[in-house]
Structures are given as structure tokens and as C-alpha cells.
Specification:
The structure holds 2 protein chains of 2 kinds.
Chain A: H1 3-23, H2 29-51, H3 60-81, H4 85-104, H5 115-150, H6 154-157, H7 164-200, H8 207-227, H9 233-259
Helix pairs in contact in A: 1-2, 1-4, 2-3, 3-4, 3-5, 4-5, 5-7, 5-9, 7-8, 7-9, 8-9
Chain B: H1 2-5, E1 11-17, H2 23-29, H3 36-44, E2 49-57, E3 60-67, H4 70-84, H5 89-92, E4 97-100, H6 101-112, H7 124-139, H8 144-163, H9 173-185, E5 192-196, H10 200-211, E6 215-219, H11 223-233, E7 236-237, H12 243-248, E8 252-255, H13 266-276, E9 281-285, E10 302-306, H14 307-372, H15 379-406, H16 411-422, H17 431-438
The chains are: A mainly alpha, B alpha/beta.
Chain lengths: 260, 453
């Protein structure tokens, strides 16, 4: 593990602690500063790896690290404009865990030949997952605060919460940005598989393809329900989490298959 | 001139507050607003009183006075307070407290900084103190000294407010409600607030929300009352019969009807929720008995805060304020010391001038007396003698002057000592005492007995 990687993992860990501390009464500024630092270090790390010929989507671990980066960077950018401090307590640890996993797991042995189609698919899928990840973090905060309000724990987090309305709107925006990206990723993925199948004669229908499609449908339903049916608030938050859960499952299945 | 130049710090505070007296007694002692002017002018005429101000709030009735004779003034003031309340002095005496000198000043600083308030950190008291002292200044019952105290107290109050978090979290039910709404529902700009019922409690909350950019709508069983309220808040009026319609369009609801049964029932709120299609709605129920049916809490995207919730939060905040108050006390203590230092410094100038004029004057008089009997001496010797008297007087003055300048902060007793020593108030000399101060300079004479030295 390079020094840079160690530093960035340390920074994410510290930021996570500081943000968790925010939930129990600390100020949020230290967390924001440390997390911004972690994001910068991470950016350098990714840049350095590119220079050495390892691009961010060349393997599952690299892609995971890239997702962690996008998640943290997206959160930092978002928190410049909105008071998202409580979401930091979820975003920073999530980025940390992803990054740790990426650095611990080995790169898959038999990576398929990529080609333009393959690269496009993986890049878009990676970005799409990162955007959905942010939406999921916002949804978790939403549900968390919803619970606090229902349990009448106003005192616990007065002046620490993010307005429910803001969380709901931002999550919706993430989903509506992520959805087209994810759609194109699925289409290019299907085309890529079809082409590989033609080349190698192995165009079998695997369960994760179906799962990916189901996830896509879940997000489609969410978008339609939001726009047409006025689904907002708690239900939308649960559906976002459901869709994101599906995405994660697809990734896990994909990874296990290639690692095997 | 010497007698009036430097007012002493004979400050006395006499009064009752929520800490010492039950409301029944405070009510009796309170001076009705229309009698304030006359009362103050009468208080000023009490024996021993030089300046006086009267602070009269729902939690305290206090007299702040500068006296020439503290005991006489205190006695006259308490008798007068009792008489106005139609009581005997002995009846109110157990509830009265007095604070003298430094403690009196500190008391004023603490009161102004809201450290002595029932709700610690409440913002109104400073304004009330200012009004009380301004009124006294306007009527001429307060002068330079009390005015100086007010400046010091205002400064201390501002510092306590800005340097501690004593006033950060609201402690009244209505402002707590506004705060909770703000934290979970965001900016009030463009938010629609519905005021259901025209209860008194909703007043403050509605005003605060209005001030922060919300649009208000009022609905009430009797339309006239709703219109009256709406006019006050610049709000719209919505028909009571269409309560559900009004609710469907609102983001925050303040309910405070006098109804005996819940007005915002599960049935109505279910309909409203359907119409709102997932947009969250916050119901602030400050009515007693409650306006929101308890089962409404179970509905999705509907949030409820009732009086119990808000009072609990308010109590929490109050606890926080009390711990901040410790920091406030430290600030007040430092400010009192600072104030006394500056104040005594200001008193120093006139005292020193008077002292010099007095002593050098005496030396000149004595020199002239002596020289009148020595007319045969040559001009040169006569000048030497006159210069020697002058130099002697200046040397006598040197030490006390230095001491005063050095220890202006502790000078309270010194200034008084010097004033008494040189008798700057009246003219009668106190020869015996003077020798003491002169001692370091090894002067064995006093101006009064200088002839035979």
C-alpha cells in the first residue's frame, strides 16, 4: 500500500470519526475540512495510478475506489451549498469502507477484454452507482430524521438536522441524474455481453443481468411515481434504498463471479 | 465646588424579585405605569437620596439609588415602598433585599445581563433596564452616576450575550416550535403556514414565522375573530368549513383552538395526506386540550409536536442556559472590576485638583501670615520663604497623588480617605489625621499649626 493510499485512508477515517462526533455534539467544520483533504489526496492517488497505467475502471477494486471518491467528492460539493452535516456521518464512513474493500480485495484474474463498449459500460455503471450511492445516503438521513421526529427526539438533534424537504429534493435530483446514466450503462452492457457471446459462444443469461434489469425498473418506477404519482418523503426514501440495494447486489454477484 | 465635584459610590439597591417574593406581593409593590413619573419624583425627595431609578417588571420591583447617607435612604425607601403598597414596612421587610456599593453595581450588571432573570438569558430585561434608567434621566431623578452605571451594565449585558451561548437555544414554547420547524423543514421562505384557531399562544409563533418569510393563512370557527387575527398578521383568511382544503395547501400548521375535542382528526388528516401526495406537513399543537388526535402521529409524512414535546425541549434548553450562565457570571465579575477601575479613574481628576488647590492654598495663606510679621527681611529671603512653603505643600501632595494614580481600581476607599483627610467636603480641618499621611515625608507640622514649627 502506498503512503498516499495510507494517508487518504487515514483522512477518511478521521473525517468519519469527526462526522460521527457531529451527531453527538461536535462542530461540523473539522469533519468537512478533513474530508475535503481526503478527497484531494484520493484524487492525486487516482491520478498517480492512471500515470502508472491503472485507470480507475480497469478492475473492480479500482472502480470501487473510484465510486468512493465520487461519493465523497459529491458529498463535499453538495455540502458547500446545503447544510448536509448529518449526512456526512453516513457519507464519510461509506467512502471509507468502500476504499478499504477496494484496497483489500485482489483484482480479478480473468478480466474480460474490454473494448470501447466495455469501457463505456463500466465507466457509466461506476458513475451511476456513485450517484445512486449519494441518493441512498440522503435517503438514509431522511429516514433517520423521520424516526427522530416520530420518536420526538427533537432535543437530540435540534439545529443539527437537514431539512427533510432538502434531503428529499436532493435525493430526487440524484436519482434523476443517475437514472439516464444507468440506463445507458445497461444498454451498453447488454450490447457488450451480446458481442462477447458472439465471440466466445457463451451468451448465457446470468442472474445478475436480470437483477440489474430489476434494479433499473425499480428506479424507473421511483421516477415515474415521483413525477406522476407525487411519491415523496418516506416512501420515496425506501424505494431509493431498495433500488440502491439491488445495484449493490449486482456488483457483488459480478465481483464474486470474476474473483472466483 | 469641592463638595459637589466628585460623587461617591454610595450605591444602594433595594427591591423584591421572583427570587424573594411571591407574585402576590410583587403585584402589590408594582407601580402602575401611569404613576411611574410621579412616584419617581417623590422618591427623589426622600432623605439621603441623591439619584434614583425605579425598575418595575413582572418579575421585579427595584430601586437603584445613589445616596449621601445609605442607612437613612434605605430606611426611607423601604417605608415608602410599603406605604405605596398599602402595607406596613414590617410586612414587606422579609422579602426585601439590599445590595450596597460594589454589590449594588454587580446586581445591576447581573440583572441587565439577564443572569438574574426567571428565564435566564431572556432578551427583554436589558431593554427594560434601559427604559427605567432613561425615564429617571428624563425626569432628572438620575444623574451622572446612575447614567454611568447604565453604560457599564449595558456593556456587560452585550458581552454576556455575545460571548456565551446563554441566549442561543430558545426556551419559550412558541420559539421552540419555530426552531424545530426550521431544523426539520428548512427555510420558511415560500412556506405556507396555517394558523388554526385564534388562541393567544399561536400569536408569537405566527409572528415569528411571518417575520422569517412564511405566508400565513388563518382559519377560525368564528370568522370575525379570524379576520381580526389575519389583519394583525397580514394573513389570508380561509373558510373554517373547508379546513381540509386549507390543510392540504399548508406546510406548517399551528393549532390552538379552544375546542374540547380534537379538530385535526385522523379522518381529516388522512384526506389531507392523500391530497398532499407525500409532501410533509408539520403540525404544531399548542392547544390544551390538544387539537391533534393522537393517532394522527402514525400517518406517513405527517409530523406532530404537542405542548409536552415542546416544553420538554424548552426545559432542556433552559438547562443549557443555566450552565452558560456560569460563564456569564465570570464576565460580569470582570466587567464590574473594569467598570470600577475606569469609574474611579474618572473620579480621580477632580479629587486631585481639589486636593492640590486646597493644600497649596493653605501653604500660601500660612506663608503670607508669616511674611506679614517679617516685613524687615530682604526681598530675596522673603521669596525663599514663600518658595519653601510652596515646595513643602507640593511635597506633601506628592505621595497621595501617586498612590491614587497607581491604584485607581482600589481607590474607592483611598479617595474617600483622602477626601476626609483633607476635608474636601466641608471646610473644617482635621489636623490630627493629616499627620498620618504626611508621615512618610517626615513632616511634623500641619497647615493649621504651622506657625510654631
Amino acid at each position: 500500500m502506498s503512503t498516499l493510499t495510507a494517508l487518504e485512508i487515514g483522512a477518511y477515517a478521521l473525517a468519519s470519526l469527526l462526522y460521527l462526533g457531529f451527531l453527538v455534539g461536535l462542530r461540523d467544520k473539522p469533519g468537512r475540512i478533513v474530508l475535503s483533504l481526503a478527497v484531494l489526496l484520493h484524487l492525486f492517488d487516482i491520478g498517480a495510478r492512471c500515470v502508472h497505467g491503472t485507470n480507475p475502471i480497469s478492475s473492480t477494486p479500482e472502480a470501487m475506489s473510484f465510486i468512493a471518491f465520487l461519493l465523497a467528492a459529491g458529498y463535499v460539493l453538495g455540502s458547500l451549498r446545503y447544510g448536509l452535516a448529518s449526512a456526512g456521518a453516513f457519507a464519510a464512513p461509506a467512502a471509507l469502507v468502500l476504499l478499504l474493500l477496494a484496497r483489500v480485495v485482489p483484482a480479478e484474474s480473468g478480466a474480460p477484454t474490454m473494448g470501447t463498449l466495455g469501457y463505456t459500460h463500466i465507466l457509466l455503471a461506476t458513475v451511476g452507482v456513485a450517484v445512486f450511492f449519494i441518493a441512498a445516503v440522503l435517503a438514509v438521513v431522511y429516514l433517520f430524521q423521520d424516526r427522530q421526529l416520530r420518536r420526538k427526539q427533537y432535543a437530540r438533534v435540534t439545529s443539527r438536522g437537514t431539512p427533510l424537504d432538502t434531503l428529499d429534493r436532493l435525493a430526487a435530483r440524484c436519482v434523476s441524474v443517475g437514472f439516464p446514466i444507468f440506463t445507458v450503462a445497461i444498454v451498453t452492457g447488454a450490447m457488450w455481453i451480446a458481442r462477447l457471446g458472439v465471440l466466445h459462444g457463451t451468451a448465457a443469461l446470468r442472474p445478475e443481468y436480470l437483477l440489474a434489469f430489476v434494479t433499473w425498473v425499480a428506479f424507473a418506477v421511483l421516477l415515474i411515481a415521483r413525477l406522476g404519482g407525487g411519491w415523496r418523503g418516506r416512501r420515496a426514501a425506501w424505494l431509493t434504498l431498495g433500488g440502491f440495494g439491488g445495484t449493490v447486489l449486482v456488483l457483488i454477484v459480478y465481483f464474486l463471479r470474476h474473483a472466483a | 465646588m469641592a463638595g459637589k465635584a466628585a460623587p461617591t459610590l454610595d450605591v444602594v439597591v433595594l427591591g423584591v424579585s421572583h427570587r424573594t417574593a411571591p407574585v402576590a406581593l410583587r403585584e402589590k409593590l408594582a407601580i402602575p405605569p401611569e404613576q411611574m413619573d410621579a412616584t419617581l419624583l417623590e422618591l427623589k425627595t426622600l432623605p439621603g437620596v441623591r439619584e434614583i431609578a425605579l425598575l418595575n417588571t413582572c418579575n421585579r420591583v427595584e430601586l437603584y439609588a445613589v445616596t449621601s447617607d445609605a442607612d437613612t435612604a434605605l430606611r426611607a425607601m423601604s417605608v415608602d415602598l410599603a406605604r405605596r403598597a398599602g402595607m406596613l414596612e414590617a410586612e414587606i421587610e422579609p422579602y426585601l433585599y439590599t445590595r450596597l456599593e460594589r454589590e449594588g453595581i454587580k446586581h445591576l450588571f447581573r440583572v441587565a445581563a439577564s443572569l438574574d432573570s426567571l428565564v435566564v438569558g431572556e432578551p427583554q430585561i436589558l431593554g427594560q433596564v434601559k427604559t427605567a434608567f432613561d425615564m429617571a434621566a428624563r425626569l432628572g431623578t438620575a444623574g451622572r452616576v446612575l447614567n454611568g452605571f447604565l453604560q457599564g451594565a449595558s456593556r456587560a449585558a452585550r458581552l454576556v450575550r455575545s460571548k456565551t451561548e446563554i441566549a442561543r437555544n430558545p426556551v419559550s414554547v412558541s420559539s421552540v416550535a419555530v426552531e424545530v420547524a426550521h431544523n426539520y423543514f428548512g427555510d420558511f421562505n415560500g412556506k405556507r403556514v396555517l394558523v388554526v384557531g385564534a388562541g393567544k399562544m399561536s400569536d408569537l409563533a405566527a409572528r415569528a414565522l411571518r417575520a422569517r418569510g412564511a405566508t400565513l393563512t388563518v382559519t377560525n370557527r368564528t370568522r370575525a375573530r379570524a379576520e381580526e387575527l389575519a389583519a394583525r398578521f397580514e394573513a389570508d383568511v380561509h373558510d373554517w368549513e373547508d379546513l381540509a382544503g386549507a390543510l392540504a395547501k399548508s406546510d406548517i400548521v399551528i393549532a390552538s383552538t379552544g375546542a374540547q375535542r380534537p379538530v385535526l382528526t385522523h379522518e381529516i388528516m388522512t384526506r389531507v395526506q392523500r391530497a398532499r401526495r407525500g409532501r410533509v406537513i408539520f403540525l404544531i399543537d399548542i392547544a390544551m386540550p390538544r387539537d391533534v388526535e393522537p393517532s394522527v402521529r402514525a400517518l406517513r409524512d405527517v409530523y406532530v409536536a404537542d405542548l409536552d414535546d415542546l416544553q420538554e425541549l424548552a426545559a432542556d434548553h433552559l438547562k443549557g442556559r443555566q450552565s452558560e450562565a456560569t460563564k456569564g457570571e465570570e464576565i460580569v465579575e470582570a466587567e464590574v472590576a473594569r467598570f470600577l477601575q475606569t469609574w474611579n479613574g474618572q473620579q480621580l481628576g477632580p479629587v486631585v485638583t481639589a486636593m492640590r488647590t486646597h493644600v497649596i492654598g493653605l501653604a500660601h495663606t500660612e506663608a503670607e501670615k508669616l511674611l506679614a510679621g517679617l516685613a524687615q527681611l530682604p526681598e530675596k529671603d522673603r521669596n525663599t520663604i514663600a518658595a519653601s512653603f510652596d515646595a513643602f505643600a507640593k511635597k506633601v501632595l506628592h505621595l497621595p497623588q501617586m498612590a491614587l494614580k497607581k491604584d485607581a481600581g482600589e481607590a474607592l476607599s483611598l479617595v474617600d480617605a483622602v477626601r476626609k483627610l483633607f476635608d474636601l467636603q466641608s471646610a473644617d480641618p482635621l489636623p490630627a489625621d493629616e499627620a498620618q499621611l504626611d508621615d512618610p515625608a517626615r513632616v511634623t507640622t500641619t497647615p493649621g499649626t504651622g506657625e510654631h514649627s
